[in-house]
Specification:
The chain is 63% helix and 12% strand. It is α+β, with helices and mostly antiparallel strands. The longest helix has 24 residues. It is elongated, with a radius of gyration of 19 Å.
């Protein structure tokens, strides 16, 4: 097979993949549960885009604008998460950590949620000793118990 045919097949495959990604991630959800499932899907797509971006040479990342794709998924994820917080489907649990370093509390929360299949997002600041966990209201006890050391 000639080099030109191989390149054409590679480009066509990438276009098909990008089209499938676009259309599977943009359907309109009607319920909070459906929006929640979309959020989880967007988080996976964002992770895949990051993984691919890290594995490919930087000239290919620039050529195919994969850094733009990663940013697009990150922005979509943030918007979906904020919409679910605004609707009350997700809550943000803010905890000021006083009994241990923030990084240790961060790790405890991650371990507490690991393997549960429950969605959570976590961010924190060592400057303010605060961590903020975004999760469903029924999952907040997992977070509080982990931070308190229970």
């Amino acid at each position: 097979m000639s080099k030109r045919k191989t390149q054409a097949i590679a480009v066509a495959s990438l276009l098909v993949l990008a089209t499938v990604w676009y259309f599977t991630a943009t359907s309109t959800a009607k319920t909070d549960e459906a929006r929640y499932q979309q959020l989880i899907g967007t988080a996976r797509l964002h992770g895949r885009a990051l993984s691919i971006q890290r594995q490919l040479p930087s000239n290919l990342v620039r050529l195919f604008h994969l850094d733009d794709l990663e940013a697009k998924y990150r922005e979509r994820y943030d918007a979906q998460k904020q919409a679910l917080v605004s609707s009350g489907y997700l809550v943000e649990v803010s905890v000021v950590v006083t009994n241990r370093p923030v990084l240790q509390a961060f790790n405890l929360v991650q371990k507490a949620f690991q393997g549960t299949g429950v969605f959570y997002a976590i961010r924190g600041s060592a400057w303010t000793n605060e961590i903020v966990v975004t999760c469903r209201p029924e999952d907040t006890p997992i977070c509080r118990k982990a931070v308190s050391g229970g």
